[in-house]
Specification:
This protein has about 650 residues and is mostly beta strands. Among the domains are: about 120 residues, Alpha-Beta Horseshoe (Leucine-rich repeat, LRR (right-handed beta-alpha superhelix)), CATH 3.80.10; about 150 residues, no CATH class; about 40 residues, no CATH class. It is elongated and about 115 Å long.
């Protein structure tokens, strides 16, 4: 291998290339004049070679001089400029002149055969990517004059085992020692004030780290992917951070969890899970987010590839960007919008209509980033919306926005960021509130009001229904049900309450007799439904296309679904039930999945046991006789006192 040689004084006359550049031994030096002080210095400058590499790669012998002569003046060489020795794999060892005070970005990037380097004691600056991917470099000592190690400075120095830092260093920038997989130990000086995100990411051999007493800024986990890290401690006297049991780092004032070792789960007393705190913990298969946690920041569980189960015990008020992305749980979610409890986190695959389901309370930050949806519909249950839900670069695909809340949700100037030239549709009578609400009033196309659907229920308090409009039943006195299953052993259909009813969807409605107004604006499908809605008068036969058709009726006090007679015409605005041929009960009784349905004609209150008949509890188990409380008897809910 060839070696850079140090020549302390250039005796050869330089070749003048232009007014400010000279070349000595094949190396270009850029002359920098300080006219105010009357001094001149020189920097080693880059020269482009083949394939984008440094031209110095072609030199047989590389020499950096301590000073060069320009116009008869000896100019000390004080810096190495950006990319000067990029991809120079002819360098094996290097001792820089004592005059060097700055090493620019990518100055020695990809010097693959560089095994050792002696940095001058007067060095002040190490730029971004300065020694990136010097894959043979085994040790480095950073002089005390260096106050900041630039971003990616030693990234992917895969053989780097020893790093010596001195007092005076105040900042280690992001990814500075990223993927230094052989680095086993590093002592951080007490002068260190800031450790930036991912500074030590993928330092696989690192087993212990102590945060100095003077460190006051750690905004994100610096130790992501440090799979051998068993001890995380904070030096006594640190006023900002602490490390209970040397297992994790906590910000004292906020109790924010900054970083954890390779074994710790979520402490029960922390309210905030910080940025990337558990990222890439591939040992995690399930997590329980404790009751006290109210905030989950960006990337908190990002890329935990084996994480399949997530349980939330409390109420979360904020979910940051990519908090759960690239987990097994996230990948297992069906196409469309991705929910965790009452939180909307993101989406799988592309779609055009982003209709958020009722019951959603929180929309996570940057939830719809890079989404191509052209309509957004937000239900009245949403209370919190994160910033940049369409990404920080905006989304100009959105053409319409619907908001179901009669009271404008509090947002910031960064929340929607979608180009406000689109129309905003709000509930009837609420446009004035939105026109005066901060940031909602920025929709230049104007605020418009969507209408209500009028629905009437007769004396029985139950009917089937279908509309050409989407309907929002959340908060309504009318309960809407889909038929989600059929139990052939009991001849019962299972009715599940839903709040979002898309247009042309058949449902069973239950309420006290009367006329109701239900908001009408775009809503998503709420899942499986065996009912078929009709918006025109529809001709039905009993059996068609492998299914038996049923309609809702009351026969001898038994309300349920009965097979239709051939040639029956079902009026527009109703729905019928389809059951596969082979499942042909004379009456499909109704079993309501919710246990609070006491609508007229369905629930009978009684004080004495019932005689014969099919009796079930609310779990669908058959009983010999009614028990105290709610029972299902012959398809009806019955209260036994």
């Amino acid at each position: 291998m060839k070696t850079i040689k140090l020549i302390l004084l250039a005796l050869l006359m330089p070749v003048v290339l232009n007014a400010q550049t000279v070349t000595v031994d094949g190396i270009d030096y850029y002359i920098m004049s300080d006219w105010y002080n009357g001094t001149q210095t020189a920097h080693v400058s880059a020269r482009a070679g083949k394939n984008g590499y440094s031209a110095y790669k072609e030199l047989d012998n590389i020499v950096i001089h301590e000073q060069v002569t320009y116009n008869g003046v000896e100019c000390p060489v004080t810096g190495i400029e950006y990319g000067a020795f990029y991809y120079c794999d002819n360098i094996t060892t290097l001792e820089l002149p004592s005059t060097i005070v700055s090493i620019g970005g990518s100055a020695f990037e990809h010097c693959d055969n560089l095994t050792s380097i002696v940095l001058p004691s007067g060095l002040v600056e190490i730029g971004e990517n300065a020694f990136r991917e010097c894959t043979s470099l085994s040790s480095i000592e950073i002089p005390s004059g260096v106050t900041e190690i630039g971003a990616y400075a030693f990234m992917s120095c895969s053989q780097l085992k020893s790093v010596t830092l001195h007092e005076g260093l105040s900042r280690i920038c992001e990814h500075a020692f990223y993927r230094c997989g052989q680095l086993e130990d590093i002592v951080l000086p007490s002068s260190l004030r800031e450790i930036q995100p991912f500074a030590f990411q993928y330092c696989f051999a690192l087993t212990h780290i102590e945060i100095p007493s003077g460190t006051t800024t750690i905004t994100s986990n610096p130790f992501v992917g440090c799979t051998s890290l068993t001890s995380l401690s904070v030096e006594s006297g640190n006023t900002v951070y602490e490390s209970p049991d040397n297992r994790y780092i906590i910000e004292k004032a906020t109790k924010r969890l900054i970083a954890v070792n390779n074994e710790t789960l979520i402490p029960t007393d922390v309210p905030i899970i910080g940025k990337y705190a558990f990222a890439e913990r591939n040992d995690l298969e399930s997590i329980v987010i404790p009751q006290n946690v109210t905030r989950i920041e960006e990337g908190a569980f990002w890329w935990c590839q084996n994480l399949k189960t997530i349980s939330v015990r409390g109420t979360i008020d904020y979910v940051g960007y990519r908090a759960f992305e690239r987990t097994r749980w996230y990948y297992n979610q069906p196409d469309g919008l991705i929910y965790l409890d009452d939180m909307l986190l993101g989406y799988n695959n592309y779609f055009q209509k982003a209709y958020i389901k009722n019951g959603t309370r929180l929309i996570a930050e940057r939830c719809f980033e890079m989404c191509s949806a052209n309509e957004l519909s937000i239900p009245s249950t949403v209370e919190l919306i994160g910033d940049y839900i369409f990404s920080q670069y905006g989304n100009y695909e959105i053409q319409k926005m619907y908001v179901g809340s009669s009271v404008p949700i509090e947002i910031t100037e960064n929340t929607l960021y979608c180009g406000y030239s689109i129309p905003l549709y709000v509930p009837a009578g609420c446009s004035g509130s939105y026109q005066s609400a901060p940031y909602w009033n920025s929709f230049y196309a104007g605020n418009f009001e969507f209408g209500n659907e009028e629905i009437t229920l007769g004396a029985s308090g139950i009917r089937t229904f279908c509309s050409e409009n989407s309907l929002d039943f959340y908060g309504s006195d009318v309960k809407a049900y889909a038929v989600t299953d059929y139990d052939a052993t009991t001849s019962e259909i299972i009715l599940t309450r839903i709040y979002d009813v898309p247009e042309r969807t058949g449902v069973v409605l239950v309420a006290d007799p009367g006329t109701y107004q239900v908001p009408s604006y775009p809503r998503p499908s709420d899942g499986t439904n065996m009912l078929v809605g009709v918006t025109n008068d529809t001709y039905l036969n009993k059996v068609y296309d492998g299914y038996t058709n049923y309609i809702l009726a009351n026969k001898n006090g038994n309300i349920g679904f009965y097979p239709v007679k051939d040639g029956t015409t079902l009026a527009a605005g109703k729905a019928y039930l389809r059951l596969p041929v082979g499942s042909q009960p004379s009456l499909a009784r109704m079993r309501f999945a919710d246990d609070d349905n006491e609508a007229t004609g369905i629930v009978t209150r009684m004080t004495a046991p019932i005689g014969d008949g099919h009796i079930y509890n609310l779990s669908g188990q058959r009983l010999r006789e009614p028990v105290k409380g709610l029972n299902i008897v012959n398809g009806k809910k019955v209260m036994v006192k």
